[in-house]
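A favour, since you know our structure tokens better than I do. Just paste the record in under my message, thanks.
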Amino acid sequence: MPFTWQHYARLVSRRRMLQVGSLGLLGISLPQLLHADEKRKRSAPAAQADACVLVFLDGGPSHLDMWDMKAAAPQEIRSPFKSIATSLPGVEFCEHLPQLARHMHRCALIRSAHHSVNNSHGAAVYTSLTGYDRGEKGGAASPADYPAIGSVTRLCRPPQNGMVPFVSLPYITAEGRGGPPQPGFFGGFLGRAFDPLFVLRDPNAPDFSIPELAPQPGVDAGRMGTRHRLLDRVDSQAANGSALRDMSSFQARAFDLLTSAAAQQAFRLNREPAPVRDAYGRNIYGQSVLLARRLIEAGTRVVCISWAPDANATWDTHGNNFPTLKNTLLPQLDAAVSSLLADLHDRGRLKRTLVVVMGEFGRSPRINKAAGRDHWNYCYSLLLAGGGIKPGMVFGSSDKIGALPRLNPVTPADIIATIYHCLGIPADLELFDSLHRPYQLVPWGSPIRDILV
């Protein structure tokens, strides 16, 4: 058995008993604490989404060249791309997102996101994925980080069918070429047991497979059952130490994958018809988004697609911005996300699947000397659709040149709180690290009620 919500509750219960001992001196009793806990449970939002696909455009996509076009801006600011109508009257996208434009009536577009952290990738990625601003403490992930969305969802809403709860692909994005892994994608203070399953093979490769899912020769069902019973014995001791607990969880995850027909089927992309694979795009990102759809259909709660091997590789368009967007990035994004939305809708799954498309910031209004745009955290856009999101609306707006929010500014904390709300997880949930220290999940933001159904 993996480290589960029940184990976590045991740790919390021990801490509650310590609280009773100390708070009793202040006249606070155990019934009062239990009443507070019950009140918090009742205040948890009803889950509108059972799963989330997060398409994270690592590097910082240019809002001014995608879905917040400023045709009336001066030449040094406005995009050379033309604007096209979307399926939502009055809303225009870039001409290189024609398929996605046809789905705007199913989406909510936020045009007023901003944050105050320094413009480095690591700090911005971390705040955009957790809602927490740790400042410039280096771009690397840390065991003390706030946990990823998928890690928290795995804790609060684990799958019921043995499916791996949280998957991240196709890269562990580095903070600069050759740099450390970026923060925001891991279990953080919840422990390594809550890290995602990283799928680091190219789903577009002709021989794509996950060899780890294949049992070793000579290991039949009987031997697997014996190993599972041994694992249960290890698990009974797991709460006594974080390292042992992590090892128990990793082995349990491996056992679940090896014995789960749903997991093994989900990774078999070659079962998809060729026209479907073509529609998503025959590239590493398009096939990753298709694999995400298969995984959430099999029971995975959260799949994160990190759209870059390193922070400077794709959407970080300081130079050559317009040819890169036109010829590569926007056509790939257009095909993948539009196909995902269409598939989820046609299969009756969009209503219970939250789709989020965002990066860590936008790009600067003024075009630089290298025909690119630079980091811009002062205003940017993102797209949401599906489970819990009100379809066919634009929330917030930017000023005339897309430099600052003009109406209804929101922060990453608000966005993360909104995602958790859709997943049925309260933003004021109290979490505990391995030392039983309390942390409120998102104390700095609130769900954006105007975009919720």
